[in-house]
Amino acid sequence: MELKNNSIIDYSDCTVIIPTFFPDDDIFDCINSLPKSIKILIIDNSYDQRLLNKIKIFSNCTYYNIGDVGLGKTFNFALTLVKTNYILLTQPDVVLSKNCLENLIKGINNYPKAGMVAPIVFDNGVYSKYDFYDLKYNKKKKFFQHDFKKKISILPAGDFCVDAINATTMLIRRDILLKINGWDENIYVYLEDIDLCLRMYLAGFCIVKISNAKVDHKGWSSHFSSIKDTMNISRIWHFTWSSIYFNFKFCNKFFAYKILISIFLKSFFKLILNLFLNKKKYQKNKIKLSACLAIIMERGSYFRVKHKTD
Domain limits of the chain? Predict the structure, then answer.
């Protein structure tokens, strides 16, 4: 328990999960922005001895290494360890504002139908255009009516319901998470959070943004700078794979194949166009084609890239 604003805040019913993959020192800003009394689980997908040594100074942090298994499996592993009613999932490059977690806990208790609540997200001090998503999902016809990236960047004045959020920071009810069978372990990375939100929505629960809870996402600083290039290759492949997989999971076959064929053909023609003109664009579209073929051949979502960390 901690004393804030002359009131006792009980954090014993909440566990924090921070997934890591060779995180930079920004993770310590994240840890320091959390209440000192709360239990934090660091679930590492690499094996970062430097990280393990450094977090030993935080008595409320416990380190687990599970290998490079992807976010779906990482979060479900953490779920087996958590016994509290609430789970706060956040990222190594996120800093919570003062009273953020307090206001999230109050918020989730104010909305009984909420499966999760989330803070307002800023990217390096600027209100994020990806703070939330409007999926426009047609449950009857099973398709998305448009690209669901958020376009409006008007800072909200009060709490509001949304279709989906990304995993920058989210406070989740553990019982509801178990009810919808946790995270999809087929997804290595990207859209595992949107997938979770959509399944929560289809199960009859809402997602609420809490306007007086804020976080700042530093972005592109959750990994060592030395692996920036190889991480970018991994991002392109996995985002392409996850986007196609996501549509096949939730949409009718005609819509899903339309998306797959569109990505495949665009990537193929751009690859040919840039064969001798632009090496970087050629490589990018080659990676996208590889992801499309992995979906077609049902090879799964894992794409190994060798990262140089020294």
Answer: 2-217, 225-296
Judged against a pLDDT cut of 70, whether residue 55 lies above it is answered with yes
pLDDT in tens, 61-80: 999 999 999 999 999 999 99
Beta strands in the chain (DSSP E): 2-4, 7-9, 14-20, 39-44, 61-65, 86-90, 94-96, 114-123, 126-127, 137-138, 143-144, 160-162, 169-173, 206-217
Q: In this predicted model, what pLDDT tens digit does every residue of 121-156 receive, in sequence order? A: 999 999 998 899 999 999 999 999 866 655 566 888
Return the CATH architecture of domain 2-217. Alpha-Beta Complex (3.90)
CB atoms within 10 A of CB 249: 15
* Contact (CB, 8 A) for 236 and 146: no
Q: Which two tokens stand for residue 175?
A: 């019982």
Q: Judge whether 119 and 127 are in contact, CB under 8 Å.
A: no
Closest C-alpha among 19, 108, 121 to residue 68? 19
Cβ 262 vs Cβ 237: under 8 Å: no
